[in-house]
Amino acid sequence: MEVILDTNALSAWLDGDEDLKLKLSSATKVWLSPIVLGEYRYGIKGSRHKEMYESELAEMERDLSILLIDASTSESYAKIRCGLQKAGRPIPWHDVWIAAQAKQHGFELVSRDKHFDHVAGVSRLDW
Question: pTM of this prediction?
Answer without folding.
Answer: 0.92
